[in-house]
Amino acid sequence: MTICLKRDLTLPLAKKGCTFGVELKTTDGEGKKVYFVHYYGNTIAFPGDACEEVFMKGEQK
């Protein structure tokens, strides 16, 4: 799965419209979505409210 950012984040190069590959989709302690994504050689968490799921050709929902 891939996500597209709906707004700018404080991280460098994490700007609105950028896409990232998702390693893991989960929820936090409050039930909000969290996406763990590939971020330039690392895996970090992006808040779900800043992301929109984008499915590439051949991927399943």
Describe this structure in words.
The protein is mostly beta strands and 61 residues long. The protein has strands spanning 2-5, 19-27, 33-39, 42-47, 51-54. Strands 4-3-2-1-5 form a five-stranded antiparallel sheet, with no helix packed on it. The model has no long low-confidence stretch (mean pLDDT 91).
A few lines on this structure:
It contains no helices and 5 strands.
Q: How many H/I helical runs?
A: 0
Summed over residues and divided by their number, the pLDDT gives a mean of 91
How far is the N terminus from the C terminus?
8 Å
Per the principal axes of the C-alpha atoms, what is the gross shape?
globular
Helix content: under 10%
User: In which order are the strands of the major sheet placed?
Assistant: 4-3-2-1-5
Reading the helices and strands in chain order gives EEEEE
Features:
61 residues, mainly beta, 5-stranded antiparallel β-sheet, 0% helix
What's the arrangement of secondary structure elements?
Elements: E1 2-5, E2 19-27, E3 33-39, E4 42-47, E5 51-54
Antiparallel strand pairs: 1-2, 1-5, 2-3, 3-4
